[in-house]
Design goal:
The complex is a heterotrimer. Chain A contains 11 helices and 4 strands; from the N terminus they run H-H-H-H-E-E-E-H-H-H-H-E-H-H-H. By secondary structure, chain A is mostly helical. In chain A, the strands form 2 sheets. Chain A has a two-stranded antiparallel ribbon with strand order 1-4. A two-stranded antiparallel ribbon of chain A has the order 2-3. In chain A, strand 2 and strand 3 (136-139) form a beta hairpin. Chain A starts with a helix and ends in a 13-residue tail after the last helix. Helix content of chain B is 71%, strand content 3%. Chain B has 12 helices and 4 strands. In chain B, the strands form 2 sheets. In chain B, strands 1-2 form a two-stranded antiparallel sheet. In chain B, strands 3-4 form a two-stranded antiparallel ribbon. In chain B, strand 3 (117-118) and strand 4 (122-123) form a beta hairpin. Chain B starts with a helix and ends in an 11-residue tail after the last helix. In chain C, the strands form 2 sheets. Chain C has a 6-stranded mixed sheet with strand order 6-7-8-3-9-10, sandwiched between helices. Chain C contains 11 helices and 10 strands. Chain C has helices at 40-48, 70-76, 93-99, 104-109, 112-117, 121-133, 149-162, 179-194, 206-212, 230-235, 237-244; strands at residues 2-11, 14-24, 29-33, 55-60, 63-64, 78-80, 167-171, 198-202, 215-220, 223-228. Chain C is of the alpha/beta class. Chain C is 40% helix and 24% strand. The longest helix of chain C has 16 residues, at 179-194. Chain C is globular. Classes of the chains: A mainly alpha, B mainly alpha, C alpha/beta. Chains in contact: A-B, A-C, B-C.
């Protein structure tokens, strides 16, 4: 029983990173009705870029690495936008989808080449801190990860609901043509959406590295799939859904791992997705169907 | 010379893989599951020739049927999932199948050694062709016999009412059902045919490479499968063939000096192609 | 031929159609008019089965339609055109008609394999008269998206006819037409009735409605507020009020 609770707790804390990745996918979908397949890869790539800080400034504190990953994520997000969505007309959805897949492959390969395919260790903070309640422990590094992600989500919500950019973003996601007619520069909003989700992604990648202790180039494949699973379970386009689903998937994943081991764990996460697709294809917070 | 035969074998198998996605894409269903049906065909036919001693041709047939059956089973729930959600669901399904084979052991003893799939190690010694004295040239011709047959079949579909109905469904489902088209039958049938083609492709792949493992059927392969018809354009099967030749021929031959950087170029090439010709490389106005 | 009883459709809180009773006699040309948002298109979607009913029944030739899916209703003889033209733009003109040959008569005519996988020569011969009727024969091999607006409207109608319907629902076919085109449309509709097709005409353009229908029903806010011959409807003060919001001469 204790093992179970421990697994759930650790999983949910880690799940905050999945929530961020899910938010990234779902926000782009909400605003542009497109899936950015390169998102998780870009997040991992940004996390790696954060490690460059250690090259430049040996012995830099971990938070510098995290900050670099954060910024690199924003830059990468903007690059993905340029390569995949700025020039290709949105009326060719297959073309934009394929180009994001192309970027996914490209980013992955660059990471593999630069690191020679070897996993890199990632700095962590508070990994020596453990809060105990009897046999039950809360790892300090996981708490930090959770905390950072929560702060990031809160900032995002403030951005979306209390700033003009956020208002413009929400307008574009509902009626892009009308938004344009109101003077909103849709291309700018789209680009900013990619930058913002990129920032979140870079942070998520760094947090994943920090909690696992290493970053591997093989991470982006499973992360893409899990991120998309979170997005679907939460409901495409719903940020609260992505948050809840991220925590859910994190928790379930860890429990599956407890009972079935690491190699089979991901299989059960897929099954979780399929269960949702059968019984609640709209996701936890499904958008209400309209008249059309 | 053998090198070129090997390349042509690869192009053949990839063309089949691309064609398996082509027919499904016509109906507007974007599927990242073709690699999964490819894998199923590969393992099933491999097990039949290696473990049960079957001849390649019936093993191929069963491989194709296995792919078709899996695709049909996926096709029905796929109906409930629209658009981009289907991409995600098929991606997850494909990864699930890959993980399944990663954990799949089924070995029997043959003389001193054990043969059969062994989880992460994969399935080695699928040696029907070498054991029966097939030359590289003969294997190549065998593969291409199937490629030509499938291309002819899909080309015929394209000219028939079935092809027009497939494309009508892909263009506007509401209009299609309002003129009497049974969406379920059309979409599931396309998925099933695609699964059969992928299963045959996988069976051929397993036997010409003699060694398959879970990582041979990953997201990259699933991507190749839809990349070919999208990049080549959905107007005709020849687009897919041309895209395979362009990608594999250009990457392998033209960039051989770049070695490991090939996959990187593949990604960049796709991005470039989609920016320059979003409708597909071989699109003609009014086609 | 078509009977609606208590037909109701809610979308969340909106009552798009509310307790509608309607009887469309066989062989008639029946008009359905009303201001925007009155539920006309929703009624068409309910009859063809694109939306499920919230309440009520729809009977076609004595048979209850219930949960019958859209493509099966077409096979029973109900076809429709769309307000916003929904052609298969990338298919050619004649292919648009080919795809629609799903009536029981067409299905009986040839075997399953021949119908789906056979060549197109027979089909083109069968479709030729329909193309002639719609004035599109010279464009048979052009992609539907390349047609002019008027030609697209004619193709939309031709495609519905390719399904050999007994009841044809026309959803605002005259939108955007000038008087001459409306007169041609009127002739075509009368020709269709002469061939034995019952027509339910949803329309805004009064020039067409008054000139071609036998009987008209008026909807407002999802409910029927009037029904009668064209002359009666024109004189009805409730109708005037719904359209114009007050009495006008």
């Amino acid at each position: 029983m204790l093992d179970f609770l421990q697994a759930v707790s650790d999983g949910v804390l880690f799940g905050a990173t999945y929530a961020l990745i899910g938010i990234g996918f779902t926000l782009v979908f909400g605003v542009m009705h497109k899936i950015n397949m390169a998102y998780a890869a870009a997040s991992v790539g940004a996390a790696y870029t954060g490690l460059l800080a250690l090259q430049v400034m040996a012995g830099a504190p971990p938070w510098v690495v995290f900050a670099c990953a954060f910024l690199a994520g924003g830059l990468l997000g903007w690059l993905v936008y340029l390569a995949c969505f700025h020039f290709i007309p949105l009326s060719h959805p297959l073309a934009t989808l394929m180009s994001t897949v192309g970027m996914l492959l490209l980013i992955d390969e660059v990471v593999v080449h630069v690191t020679d395919g070897m996993p890199q260790s990632y700095p962590a903070m508070f990994d020596d801190v453990m809060l105990r309640a009897g046999e039950f422990t809360l790892r300090g590094d996981l708490l930090l990860v959770f905390g950072v992600c929560v702060v990031a989500m809160a900032c995002l919500l403030v951005l979306l609901y209390r700033t003009r950019l956020g208002l413009a973003t929400r307008a574009v996601s509902q009626q892009p043509v009308a938004a344009q007619l109101c003077g909103i520069q849709v291309a700018r909003v789209n680009a900013m959406t990619f930058v913002i989700t990129g920032l979140l992604g870079g942070l998520a990648g760094a947090m994943i590295g920090a909690s696992v202790g290493t970053l591997s180039p093989l991470l982006s494949g499973p992360l893409t799939v899990k991120g998309l699973i979170v997005t679907v379970i939460g409901g495409l386009g719903s940020i609260p859904g992505a948050i809840v689903a991220g925590l859910l998937v994190g928790g379930f994943e860890n429990v599956f791992q407890l009972y079935r081991g690491v190699t089979e764990r991901d299989l059960y996460v897929m099954l979780l997705l399929f269960v949702f697709l059968i019984f609640r294809p709209g996701g936890i917070f499904a958008a209400r169907a309209g008249r059309d | 010379m053998d090198f070129y035969f090997g390349l042509i074998q690869l192009i053949g198998v990839h063309t089949l893989l691309g064609l398996s996605a082509y027919i499904v894409l016509l109906t507007g269903q974007v599927t990242l599951a073709q690699a999964a049906f490819y894998a199923i065909g590969a393992y099933v036919s491999g097990m039949l020739t290696v473990l049960a001693g079957w001849h390649i041709v019936p093993a191929l047939g069963v491989g194709g049927l296995a792919g078709a059956a899996a695709a049909c089973a996926v096709g029905f729930p796929a109906l409930r999932v629209k658009g981009l959600m289907l991409v995600i669901a098929t991606l997850a399904f494909g990864e699930g199948v890959r993980i399944f084979f990663f954990n799949f052991d089924y070995q029997i003893a043959k003389g001193d050694i054990k043969v059969g799939p062994l989880g992460g190690e994969g399935f080695r010694q699928i040696r029907f062709f070498p054991e029966n004295g097939w030359t590289t040239l003969e294997v190549m011709l065998f593969i291409w016999a199937f490629v030509i047959a499938v291309m002819a079949l899909l080309w015929w579909f394209d000219r028939s009412r079935y092809g027009a109905v497939l494309r009508a469904v892909g263009e506007d489902e509401v209009a299609a059902q309002s003129v009497g088209v049974n969406l379920t039958a059309v979409k599931v049938s396309a998925m099933t045919v695609g699964g059969a083609i992928a299963g045959i492709a996988g069976s051929l792949y397993a036997h010409y490479t003699t060694h398959i493992e879970h990582s041979s059927f990953n997201v990259l392969v699933a991507t190749f499968a839809i990349a070919y018809p999208i990049v080549g354009g959905l107007q005709s099967v020849f687009g897919t063939l041309a895209a395979v030749i362009f990608v594999q021929g250009f990457l392998i031959e033209g960039l051989r000096g770049l070695g490991d950087w090939r996959n990187l170029l593949f990604g960049a090439l796709i991005v470039l192609a989609m920016n320059l010709r979003p409708q597909g490389i071989f699109w003609r106005r009014g086609a | 031929m078509l009977e609606l009883k208590g037909v109701t459709r809610h979308f969340g809180g909106v009552r798009a159609v509310d307790g509608l009773d309607l009887v469309v006699p066989e062989g008639s040309i029946f008009g359905l008019i009303g201001p925007n948002g009155s539920g006309k298109s929703t009624t068409v979607n309910l009859v063809t089965g694109l939306f499920p009913l919230t309440a009520g029944t729809i009977r076609f030739r004595g048979e209850t339609l219930d949960d019958l899916p859209t493509h099966r209703r077409l096979q029973k003889g109900i076809a429709r055109t769309f307000q916003n033209i929904r052609l298969f733009g990338r298919l050619t003109v004649w292919q648009n008609l080919w795809v629609a040959q799903n009536s029981p008569e067409d299905r009986a005519r040839r075997g399953f394999v021949a119908r789906w996988l056979g060549g197109n020569r027979n089909a083109r011969e069968e479709i030729a008269p329909l193309l002639e009727f719609s004035g599109l024969a010279h464009k048979a091999d052009d992609p539907a998206a390349s047609l002019s607006f008027g030609e697209q409207r004619r193709l939309e109608l031709a495609r519905a006819l390719a399904a050999r319907p007994k009841l044809l629902l026309l959803d605002e076919p005259a939108a955007g037409m000038n008087s001459e085109e409306i007169a041609q449309l009127r002739e075509r509709i009368l020709a269709l009735r002469a061939r034995g097709i019952t027509i339910l005409l949803i329309e805004h353009v009064m020039e067409l409605v008054m000139g071609v229908t036998d009987r008209i029903a008026v909807l407002n806010f999802g409910q029927k507020i009037a029904e009668g011959a064209p002359a009666e409807i024109q004189a009805d003060p409730a109708v005037r009020k719904a359209y114009l919001g007050g009495d006008t001469a």
